[in-house]
Amino acid sequence: QLQLVESGGGLVQPGGSLRLSCTTSGLTLNDFTIGWFRQAPGKEREGVACISSRDGSAIYANSVKGRFTISRDNAKNTVSLQMDSLKPEDTAVYYCHTESFWGQGTQVTVSS
């Protein structure tokens, strides 16, 4: 069965960095487009970044463009999200997603 497990969240100061990982199982990673989403308290879930199965190209939300980088390691069945120059407004639960499957989420808190 397809599973997605996020890790790497935590508390970081503004301007800091975190690297999230989405470890997948039950699929051949390079056959699937994988996305990262986030949901802040009281807000709707929003797309952050996704990486194409076809050519590895990535797209980003305008709010994170230039600060976040999505990448995939097909050999390790992992999709990562490198987050730099973090801002308080990046605080949210971050989820990875493909097809109809979601991970359980990992909390990212940006605060001084």
Strand content: over 45%
Discrete helix count:
0
Largest beta-sheet details? 7 strands, mixed
Global mean pLDDT: 95
Name its key features.
mainly beta; globular; 51% strand; 112 residues; 11 strands; single chain; 4-stranded antiparallel beta sheet
Description:
With 112 residues, the protein is mostly beta strands. The strands form 2 sheets. Strands 2, 4, 5, 6, 9, 10 and 11 form a 7-stranded mixed β-sheet that branches. A 4-stranded antiparallel β-sheet has the order 1-3-8-7, with no helix packed on it. A hairpin with a 6-residue loop joins strand 5 and strand 6.
SSE topology:
Layout: E1 3-7, E2 10-12, E3 18-25, E4 34-39, E5 46-51, E6 58-60, E7 68-73, E8 78-83, E9 92-98, E10 101-102, E11 106-110
Brief rundown of the structure:
The protein is mostly beta strands and 112 residues long. It has no helices and eleven strands.
